[in-house]
Amino acid sequence: MAAVCDLCGKKRNVANNVSHSHIKTKTVQKPNLHKVKAVVNGTNTRLRVCTRCLRSGKIERPSVVKADPFG
After folding, report:
1. What is the tally of structural domains in the chain?
2. Structural domain span for residue 25
3. Which of 11, 14, 60, 62 has its CA 20 to 30 A from that of 54?
């Protein structure tokens, strides 16, 4: 399963770990993805979305209707 955001397409980044003696080793930085339920084309679907897209409001969350406990 690829670590890719379903909305913006953000994916892994390859970088270097640099030690005190300046020896460089490759490392992988993955995006912070969350599984959320969102409304896409009028249907509720489950997406893997990065936190930047969640904070910026790029997705529409489904409305939750709670039952009335006294009704």
Report:
1. 1
2. 1-64
3. 14
SS3 28: strand
Centroid of chain to Cα 30: 10
Summarised one tens digit per residue, pLDDT across range 7-42 is: 999 999 999 999 999 999 999 999 999 999 999 998
> Which amino acid does the sequence have at 23?
I
d(CA 35, CA 42): 18
SS3 70: coil
Beta carbons of 14 and 59 less than 8 angstroms apart: no
- Is residue 19 a part of any domain in this protein? yes
H or E element at residue 13:
strand 13-18
The SS3 assignment for 54 reads helix
Query: 14 pairs with which residues across the strands?
Result: 28
